[in-house]
């Protein structure tokens, strides 16, 4: 039986694509192991699946001045030594990395052990962790056609992002029932990310009375961000976080409002949901969400409103545009090349593991 080590962590976006690959990897006969950080979000998510999990030391590599820049390189070196030891013990045929800083020592250790490594870059331009890992990889998978120009031509492959199988199994009626809704009005689903998004939450609540004239609204607002004054509002439900019921809520939705994290928008694309994207501002990030959203807008998949430009009038107009012309957006998404991602990536893994 062939063995594979998966790595990636720090945020859910660096873990869920790996989780999406696991069923197909099992079908292909792989014995699966995971290397992540000691206590990152990946530990809980992977252990729940019964996959052997190994934690290593990890440090963040920063582009800005911080006292931790003195200590964190030593954590990375420790993680590299631990990863080398684990890879010697596991003896995998291949390593697949979804990124995040914990993946750096694993990928570099795999290179030092002459183990082929495939990495996946979700965003339009590679982040710092993947920039370090690219020279060690045999293949680099991407979500966006525009990313190919930033990568070595002999390594880059346009695959899209692996989408969790359960997202395609959502039940619209179950979703409506869970929220206490019916079929009388279309449904808007708002997703602000795992931690919620204050700008998105405020914008939606600012036009809620107008939205409720035409729509029912499901609002995933993030931990600690519920508005108690709106509890009991007919046609509006808010949840801090949803896990198992998410496929049903997505199936119940007619349009979506979301941040523009790469995995989130690839899931929206896979489900063919007309959408409005409000990317995280460049002041709060390296600007990757802005670039992601721009690509989806150019391809005709999304309407984009920059966070700094959100007004009640703009958001309401965008919601009406997305709903009234939903067939146009669905038709554009149906033409996407970013389909069969899992099949493509597992094919690359099989080739590398030979």
From TrEMBL:
Its EC number is 2.4.1.227. Pfam families: Glyco_tran_28_C, Glyco_transf_28. One of its GO terms (molecular function) is undecaprenyldiphospho-muramoylpentapeptide beta-N-acetylglucosaminyltransferase activity. The keyword Glycosyltransferase applies. The keyword Cell wall biogenesis/degradation applies. It is found in: Cell membrane. Residues 4-140 form the Glycosyltransferase family 28 N-terminal domain. UDP-N-acetyl-alpha-D-glucosamine binds at residues 11-13, 164, 194, 289. It catalyses: di-trans,octa-cis-undecaprenyl diphospho-N-acetyl-alpha-D-muramoyl-L-alanyl-D-glutamyl-meso-2,6-diaminopimeloyl-D-alanyl-D-alanine + UDP-N-acetyl-alpha-D-glucosamine = di-trans,octa-cis-undecaprenyl diphospho-[N-acetyl-alpha-D-glucosaminyl-(1->4)]-N-acetyl-alpha-D-muramoyl-L-alanyl-D-glutamyl-meso-2,6-diaminopimeloyl-D-alanyl-D-alanine + UDP + H(+). GO terms for biological process: carbohydrate metabolic process; cell division; cell wall organization; peptidoglycan biosynthetic process; regulation of cell shape. InterPro entries: GlcNAc_MurG, Glyco_trans_28_C, GlycoTrans_28_N. Residues 187-338 form the Glycosyl transferase family 28 C-terminal domain. It is an enzyme of class 2 (transferase). GO terms for cellular component: plasma membrane. It is a peripheral membrane protein. Belongs to the glycosyltransferase 28 family. MurG subfamily. Cell wall formation. Catalyzes the transfer of a GlcNAc subunit on undecaprenyl-pyrophosphoryl-MurNAc-pentapeptide (lipid intermediate I) to form undecaprenyl-pyrophosphoryl-MurNAc-(pentapeptide)GlcNAc (lipid intermediate II). NCBIfam families: murG (TIGR01133), PRK12446.1 (NF009102). PANTHER family: UDP-N-ACETYLGLUCOSAMINE--N-ACETYLMURAMYL-(PENTAPEPTIDE) PYROPHOSPHORYL-UNDECAPRENOL N-ACETYLGLUCOSAMINE TRANSFERASE, UDP-N-ACETYLGLUCOSAMINE--N-ACETYLMURAMYL-(PENTAPEPTIDE) PYROPHOSPHORYL-UNDECAPRENOL N-ACETYLGLUCOSAMINE TRANSFERASE 1. This is UDP-N-acetylglucosamine--N-acetylmuramyl-(pentapeptide) pyrophosphoryl-undecaprenol N-acetylglucosamine transferase. The lineage of its organism: Bacteria, Bacillati, Bacillota, Clostridia, Lachnospirales. The gene is murG.
């Amino acid at each position: 039986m062939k063995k594979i080590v998966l790595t990636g962590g720090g945020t859910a976006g660096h873990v869920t694509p790996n989780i999406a690959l696991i069923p197909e990897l099992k079908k292909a006969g792989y014995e699966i192991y995971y290397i992540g950080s000691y206590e990152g979000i990946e530990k809980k998510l992977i252990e729940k699946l019964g996959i052997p999990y190994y934690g290593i030391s990890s440090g963040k590599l920063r582009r800005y001045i911080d006292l931790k820049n003195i200590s964190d390189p030593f954590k990375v070196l420790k993680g590299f030594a631990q990863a080398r030891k684990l890879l010697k013990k596991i003896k995998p045929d291949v390593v697949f990395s979804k990124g995040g800083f914990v993946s750096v020592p694993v990928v570099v250790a795999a290179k030092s052990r002459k183990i082929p490594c495939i990495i996946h870059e979700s965003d339009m331009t590679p982040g710092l962790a993947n920039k370090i890992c690219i020279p060690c990889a045999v293949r680099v998978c991407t979500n966006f056609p525009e990313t190919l120009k930033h990568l070595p031509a002999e390594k880059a492959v346009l695959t899209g992002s692996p989408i969790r199988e359960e997202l395609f199994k959502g039940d619209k009626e179950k979703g409506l029932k869970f929220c206490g809704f019916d079929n009388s009005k279309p449904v808007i689903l708002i997703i602000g990310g795992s931690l919620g998004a204050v700008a998105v939450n405020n914008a939606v609540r600012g036009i809620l009375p107008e939205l409720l004239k035409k729509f029912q609204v499901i609002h995933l607002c993030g931990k600690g961000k519920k508005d108690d004054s709106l509890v009991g509002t007919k046609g509006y439900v808010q949840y801090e976080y949803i896990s198992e019921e998410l496929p049903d809520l997505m199936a119940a939705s007619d349009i979506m409002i979301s941040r523009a994290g790469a995995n989130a928008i690839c899931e929206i694309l896979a489900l063919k949901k007309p959408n409005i994207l409000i990317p995280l501002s460049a002041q709060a990030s390296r600007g990757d969400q802005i670039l992601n959203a721009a690509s989806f807008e150019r391809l005709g998949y999304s309407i984009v409103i920059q966070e700094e430009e959100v007004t009640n009038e703009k958001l309401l107009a965008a919601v009406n545009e997305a709903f009234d012309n939903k067939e146009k957006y669905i038709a554009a998404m149906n033409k996407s090349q970013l389909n069969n991602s899992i099949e493509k990536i597992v094919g690359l893994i099989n080739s590398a593991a030979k």
